[in-house]
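Why show two proteins at once? Because comparison is the fastest way to build intuition. When a single record is shown, students tend to memorize it. When two are placed side by side, the eye starts asking what differs. So, the first record is below.
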Amino acid sequence: MSTVKQSQYVPSYPVKGDSLYPGLMADAGKPERESMAASATTPDVPAGPEHGGPRNWKVTAKLDLREQPTASAGIVATYEPGTLLDNLGCQEEGGRVWCDVQQLGGGPRVFVDAEYLTPAVSPDGSVAKGADDSALRAGQGVFDATGKIPCALSAGQPMGQCEFGVARAGGGYATVVVKRPAGPGRAIYFRMGIPIGADTSQADGYPEFHATKESDLHIIRVGSERYEIPDAVILGG
């Protein structure tokens, strides 16, 4: 498969604004006893993925979504137990830890109480940590595996075989690029082993993305295109 431009397959993800956190030198002038007491009462703040923290949370109990990191902020909606969320960073406010989150696959960006979150376990049994670089590597043509998958690239076309390359980032995070005879390859994005979208553009009319699963096979439709991608392509092994 030919190398593509580095930025071509990088999807748009929500970006958290700059935040300033107190450095270790903040306690330099304090007596040892005072510093120890402060550390004993300050809650631990989980790291964001960019600092090695988990990429995703799972909700452990019915949870309110708030506009701001405080219990007095307005409630936007609620999450049910088991809901998967993107970890966009956490902070301490008023003696409690609040996490900036968005539901996996899209939704409002809100704050939730970290007490009701646990690191999400991916389909391969791991907790995915660190930044996801799969789309970036796919855009550079750096793949972990290549091969062929069943495909049909237009309405009424019988299923055939298409060449693909997959860049994996662990924990069910992967970008699959399927080669097409005309135009650029079609990139399909997976997170936590779940297909969440494809690279569509104005040039191809922003075709609708739809995904279902039968056993270990993902059935992906992008407009009139159809792709069948096994779990093994995403998870490896």
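Second record. Ask yourself what differs from the first in the token line.
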Amino acid sequence: MSEHLRTALRLAAAGVPVLPLRAGKAPFGNCHCCAGNACGGRPNMKTAGPCRCPGVCHAWAAATTDPDVLTSPAWSAAWRRAVTVAYHPGAAGLTVVDLDDAAALDWARATLPTTRTVPTTRGEHWIYRGTMASHNGVRPGVDIKSAMSYVRYLGPGTGPLTGLPDAVRALAVKEPPATRPAPRPVSLSTGSGDERCPHRTPVFLERGIAMAEQRITQATTAVHATVYGAFLAVLSRHGRCGCLTDTHVGRLFAAAQAKGESGRHCAAAWANARAALGM
């Protein structure tokens, strides 16, 4: 039995759902039986099922506390290739604040209540008792890992667990659409002083925004790429006539943030789409 599997079994016995990670700290890919999440492997935020495929897939959703699953032949190949063990904090009733550099650590020490800490390569994991939605990039060098996420197991850590504070929950509160950073739309003059939208009707724009929102909302994989593609499509149609408003952009950002994108990632995707179109 490998050392990683022994660690996984010990954590599972303590009620912490675990999974193996391959090189690059990445989860094992979808098995051929449910590629593209064909088996519907998108369980609710507090559990680690109902994926029942024969292989190790769906990343955090594959995490389990069942020793029979962890030692099954189907998982054996994964454990042989694993480079480390990960766990699903949300299913264990935990939230991990991942502090990725010295500046983030200084901020946490000045802002957050002390709790159990685990050293990482570049910073620390601060572990709190309680669950919430996971969010990346809530501030520079700070990610929140809890529901529908996985975290490398780097040891038991030091210090007692503290209840999840409001200060951490507040990090995930989305800004109102009007205040989200968004580049201003580009207006191109027709040369005749006629600044009317060439589409002639606001219905065309409304349909385009609604279709982009739906495309983002229905994404089950490759959310980053889907958001960028939707932004690119809207800008290519409506970005040069001056008809886009902050309200329209705010709707797109809200749809993306509902899928887990941060405001910073939305602004970056929007800027990249504008750059790709030469705006």
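One difference worth noting in the second protein: The chain has nine helices and ten strands.
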